[in-house]
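Lecture 7, part 2: worked example. A protein chain together with nicotinamide-adenine-dinucleotide.
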Amino acid sequence: MTMPPTSTSATTRAERDDEAPEEPTEPESALETARRQLQHAADHLDIDPNVVERLKHPKKVHEVTVPIERENGDVEVYTGYRAQHDSVRGPFKGGLRYHPDVTREECVGLSMWMTWKCAVMDIPFGGAKGGIAVNPKDLSTEETERLTRRFTDEIRSVIGPTTDIPAPDMGTDPQTMAWLMDAYSMQEGETVPGVVTGKPPVVGGSEGRDAAPGRSVAIIAREAIEYYDKEIRETSVAVQGFGSVGSNAAKLLDDWGANVVAVSDVNGGVYDPNGLDTHAIPSHHEEPEAVLTHEAPETVTNDELLELDVDVVIPAAIGNVLTAANADEVAADIVIEGANGPTTSAASAILAERDVPVIPDILANAGGVTVSYFEWLQDINRRAWSLERVNEELETEMLAAWRAVREEFEARDVTWRDAAYIVALSRIAEAHEARGLWP
Ligand code: NAD
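Predicted complex, written out as structure tokens:
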């Protein structure tokens, strides 16, 4: 089991002084957003302020030096992090990111989001996030493998199938997770598939894991469409980003009868008011950044896509794309957050004022961590599930979370984001109160 929840929470004075400001400014960091959203939800709940204060800070942040030998024989030294936010409901869980902008603060903010995401899905995990400040495009495959193995060794004492379970994120993939699993297992003297999720199925990965975040976005979009009394067959949808999340969400909604009129990648998008054949458009993983090679009546920029007059818009590429600068121009009736953090706090306030529902990322794209949980269950039980079972159980979990959030939304007259945070925070606070303060 994890450490008692209220042992050494390393909250320093410097961290306290680093509180999020009252008024949102743009651009805002993941940590500022996470703290602001926490406080917003806490204001609606009667919970111990000490629990809220604790949740503004990570339990621990590990910073390690990762030296590797480059192809030319030089040694290069990188910095890696693992932020562990809260484990009151179970082991820490969260992605590992290889990106030049990875910082301690970003890992802390993203680890907080993972705590809320696991709690809103009622998954018995807490939140973590980590990564290495490196541009993976600068490394050969062999260098990336050496980096991953060394990083794994540096954080080996703080990860494990019952303590902290990493997963892929930006710049990492199933192969990275297979190396991590191998490096960890070699030192343990036994194969430990449950130390990491998002692995290739041949070494204990789950069927359906890759498509799961996009599938959950589609499921939540379908429920929201019905909630707002629309017919899916008469619903137009625009999706920004045609990678793992965006392409899977767009294709499923297309299969279920929605009219997907626009999709884009980093270079821009294609638009057909009569509906695109989403299966004919190359996704990022089939052919990177090739959306514009698909023939369509019109092309749109990524900014224009977000302002199209559609029923549903799904930002599923990167964070901070809906801001104070364009929130007034969003013409869609519903926003479903496919990416993590696509809407800034200022944009959220404007959209709320305009009565445009925004279904938050911690619910909509939580299919990824949910199937990661299924993968972990399969690993510790040494029994693989079929794709059908994975998708059925994902559907069940997504609908349960949707209902829990919808109840708060209706009962409290708050935004969908606040409703999701209220569900998450209530569960976390109750767990803290039940376990109590140690010693
Ligand atoms: P991906 O790399 O598979 O695809 C990203 C897509 O966005 C590509 O089509 C790319 O061309 C496009 N893109 C990149 N920069 C862009 C820009 N500036 N403007 C418009 N489009 C741009 O990534 P993904 O796994 O689909 O992740 C997308 C988002 O969803 C991220 O915010 C990620 O954190 C989040 N997310 C991913 C998962 C997952 O497991 N894959 C789970 C939950 C959330």
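Residues 1-22 have pLDDT under 50 and may be disordered. Residues 220 and 399 are 8 Å apart (CA to CA). Keep this in mind for problem set question 3.
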